[in-house]
Design goal:
The chain has 128 residues and is an alpha+beta fold. The chain folds into two domains: 39 residues; 55 residues, Nuclear Transport Factor 2, Chain: A (Roll). It is 33% helix and 20% strand. It is built from two helices and four strands; from the N terminus they run ααββββ. It has a four-stranded antiparallel β-sheet, with helices on one face. β3 and β4 form a beta hairpin.
Length: 128
């Protein structure tokens, strides 16, 4: 009846249909598991925008309204406000003619990001 094949793969075996169903269900379950993991951990995987961003506030106004950044302290305040949900430290701050370069560090003093804050309009972006 089964020829040279093992008993589990023979035509008349009732386990054959169950095995096919199981082999079809396993990839579906694994895919759903990955989707669920990604949805629950998406916030941890997201990082600040590398293309430039803007932090609005009562002092600076709504999104898109340019404002002048006059000194290092204002630039640091912008970055601290942007990273308010994370525990960060500010490393070196370098002032150039048109912008500030600010190092953002984690609690262990490891470099997280290097950010440029435009003096003319208050926008910032990552250069790390």
């Amino acid at each position: 009846m089964g020829g040279d094949y093992p008993l589990i793969f023979s035509q008349g075996n009732m386990y054959n249909k169950k095995m096919k169903k199981l082999l079809m269900i396993i990839p579906i379950v694994l895919t759903l598991n990955q989707i669920t993991w990604a949805q629950t951990n998406i916030e941890n995987l997201q990082s600040p925008s590398p293309y430039g961003d803007y932090e609005s506030s009562k002092k600076r106004g709504r999104y898109g309204k340019p404002f002048v950044v006059n000194n290092k302290e204002e630039a640091i305040d912008i970055i601290k406000s942007y990273y308010r949900d994370r525990k960060i430290k500010i490393g070196e701050v370098e002032e150039r003619r048109r912008f500030f370069i600010i190092e953002v560090l984690d609690e262990q003093n490891s470099l997280i990001d290097v950010i440029v804050v435009n003096k003319k309009n208050g926008r910032f972006r990552s250069i790390y």
